[in-house]
Predict the structure.
Amino acid sequence: MADQQKKPKKSKLKQSEKRAAYWLVAPSILLILIIAIYPVLQSFYFSLFDLRLNDPTKSSVHLNYSINIEEYLNYYPFLEGDLEGEMKQADGAVKNKLTDIHANLNQLDSKIREDAGDVYGKVNKMLNNFKTPPSDLSMVEITDETAEEFTGTIQHINEELKALEEKGSLSNPKELTGLASGMTGVIIEPNFIGFGHYANLLQNDRMWASLGNTFVFTIISVFFEFVLGLAVALLINKAFFGRGIIRATVLIPWAIPTAVSAMMWKFLYDGQNGIIAKLFHDIGLIDSMGSLLSTELGGMFAVILSDVWKTTPYIALLLLGGLQVIPKTLYEAASIDGAGKWKQFITITLPMLKLSILVALLFRTLDAFRVFDLIYVLTGGGPANATETISIYAYQVMFSQLQFGAGSAIAIIVFICVAIISMIFVKLLGSDLLPEGSKK
């Protein structure tokens, strides 16, 4: 009986502990959702539309046909008035044709009024009072039937007016045809294209080239940063006079802002006065001083060298933390057993440092894959896109070309690549992070 009473108490205690744990974790989860997950979802949503900030008809999301009432009312009343004036002066077949055009235009306006509702009157009143309507009021959704009829009718009116203009049947042809042509841009078509951007990007050679540059930069730079960072960490982990000053000095490159570091290296690589360029030329690494920033191979070498110089201290710092927790007694015991320095490094240092190595490589790989500021300032992605990474390409498409939808699709591709890299590293880390009792 006593055991049966203890079990419900333990069960209730576990449930209360679980609820408490959820409440403690909830703020962090909420923060992650707001800061990390929501922007990704928003970018994915935008990538499904043909958003172009340099095109007023595609500068925002449109799931249905819309009409710019403000722009429509800037053309329709004047076009109607000019048609009435032409009708009074014309006769015969020309008058009949103008009458038909006027009737079609009025019929079209009736449908626009019906779909727009009260907004039509409000915008018209504001314009008559020389006030600019707000953008959210000017855009009104209309039915597909109205949009198709509007497009067909305006196209027909334009053709009829141009035919009359060619025959010389109009007294004021330029104004009439100009107003009719202006009406063609008031209808905003839906810009939902689904996965169209992704399909285009998968066939885009520039996208694949930038992705290849990203992998080349990431693999080579992280490799050398790890090797040099491990060597530096092993060095500054030893006890010697002035160790504190050396440790602080080693971290200086990492402390310098990336943009400042890139500008500094740009001067060092300069084909006229660059010290590094002259040094490499003198020892025969490059054909001319200008090769570092003007050739494809030289450009990639330049950005990798700059990144290795700046980020090696970061790797060294992370690995130094792992070295600090390795018990010194292990090295003493190995030394007594006759193990040399290399044997100690292989059998003690690397196995004990495995978790720190994987964490350092994870952080640095993700950071290198998303590199932007260093390359943007140093080479701008050149020469001939030889150093253009996927982040640089996304920036060019989104902000230089103002194709916001396509840029968002590239950002999602970057996110997918980063997620895959993270999952690979987490898989490698998983066996070390799990408690001993949970490993199977």
